[in-house]
Amino acid sequence: MTTVREVADVFGRAAGVYDSVIPFFRRFGERLVETVGVGAGDEVLDIAAGRGAATFPALRRVGEGGRVVATDLATPMVEALAAELGDARNATALVMDAQSLDFPDASFDVVLCAFAVMFVPDRAAALAEWRRVLRPGGRLGVSVPRGANEEMLFFGDVARSFAERAVRPLPVPPQPFDLAPELEAAGFRDIEEEDDEQEFVFPDEEAWWAWLQSQGQRVFLEVLPPDAVQDLKAECFARLRPHRAADGFHLFQRARYTTARS
Ligand SMILES: C[S@@+](CC[C@H](N)C(=O)[O-])C[C@H]1O[C@@H](n2cnc3c(N)ncnc32)[C@H](O)[C@@H]1O
């Protein structure tokens, strides 16, 4: 069982390098903001905002007449995001659990949650909160990863094969779930789903390895002693190598964007 605190702490340790290797989360954050149709003057809440993959595109769209509040449970993420937001008059970053929001009812026109809802253990409580802080008719946009090209999906298997060398139990990855019926049960309406795929290129194996450590999957490395990490790295590179194209390794990552109204 991985606790909410443990999840946030993993991301806290990644905060300094998060999304710095390829523009992975930024690309999906931009698409989420487009899909929801954040517009001028909107008041937007970005939940589990990380380093602002959806916060910054939302901020560009709301303009001077709107505002964006970004929240996350990992303090280092919030501190890094706040530093990047600088003195933007209409943007704030706050430490807050997605399951319990410290805002009055009907505070926002749009609530966003990019690539994070799967880490929230009590989704029913969270969705009720997200709906509570939306104004009547307000828009929700949630994105989740939906798999990738087969040849880039080896890491879970490799990590599991190192379980015996782990100094702590391997974390349990988020389990698949269907968000639309959960949104309906929470009282949302006009629920729509859209899927897409984004392509990223790692110029070499080391770039892929750096990317792994810049996001949540680093948790699997954190439970291994250094010699096991080196062996795991060698095994991952052996799995990658046969798939090398002229310019490197291609990741085709799929995502689902679910939108709804309160
Ligand atoms: C994969 S990252 C996504 C961050 C950002 N939305 C993006 O698209 O880059 C997941 C984020 O969820 C945050 N998180 C995990 N559990 C949370 C919770 N219960 N409440 C708030 N944030 C949480 C983590 O700290 C992390 O920043």
Structural overview:
The protein is an alpha/beta fold and about 260 residues long. It has helices at about 5-15, 25-35, 55-60, 75-85, 125-135, 155-160, 180-185, 205-215, 220, 225-240, and strands spanning about 45, 65-70, 90-95, 110-115, 135-150, 190-200, 250-260. It has one domain: Rossmann fold, CATH 3.40.50.150. The protein is about 35% helix and about 25% strand. Strands 3-2-1-4-5-7-6 form a 7-stranded mixed sheet. Helix 4 links the parallel strand 2 and strand 3. It is globular, with a radius of gyration of 19 Å.
Q: What are the distinct ligands in this entry?
A: S-adenosylmethionine
Structural class: alpha/beta
Number of helices: 10
In the CATH hierarchy, the architecture is 3-Layer(aba) Sandwich
What are the segments in which pLDDT stays under 50 over at least 5 consecutive residues?
Answer: none
What is the strand content?
15-25%
Percent of residues in helices: 25-40%
Task: State mean pLDDT (0 to 100 scale).
Answer: 96
For CATH, the homologous superfamily is named as Vaccinia Virus protein VP39
Tally of separate domains = 1
CATH topology, by name, is Rossmann fold
* Order of SSEs: HHEHEHEEHEHHEHHHE
Strand order of the largest sheet: 3-2-1-4-5-7-6
Q: What's the shape?
A: globular
The N- and C-terminal alpha carbons lie at a distance of 32 Å
By CATH reckoning, the class would read: Alpha Beta
The major sheet is characterized as: 7 strands, mixed
Secondary structure elements and their pairing?
Blueprint: H1 4-14, H2 24-36, E1 43-47, H3 55-62, E2 67-72, H4 75-85, E3 91-95, E4 108-114, H5 123-133, E5 134-148, H6 155-161, H7 179-185, E6 189-202, H8 205-213, H9 219-222, H10 226-240, E7 249-261
Parallel strand pairs: 1-2, 1-4, 2-3, 4-5
Antiparallel strand pairs: 5-7, 6-7
